[in-house]
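ok so for the tutorial part 2 we go from a plain amino acid sequence to predicted structure tokens. step 1 is just haveing the sequence, like this:
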Amino acid sequence: MTLDDLEEIAIKSGLRKSKKNWYASQAQLEQFANSMLAEFRQIATDRLITSIKKAADYEREQCAKVAEMAWFNGIELEQVSSAIRERKDA
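step 2 — the prediction. this is what the tokens look like for a chain of 90 residues:
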């Protein structure tokens, strides 16, 4: 979020700007604060979703590598799955 984004939200919330200062009523300040909270919540949600997707992609890559190594070594996938479950339960 840039300073221009903040200024846009402030203006949409009804805040007025002179050359050096901002002016607003209590209700306008509350609307601005609520708008900022909504904006930050959306940013946090987007970043969390991105992080979860990256973690899932990494896990899929790791599982594919394990399956490929097992195949090259002649190990059945059921044996690999069983070993992973045993390790998870430990």
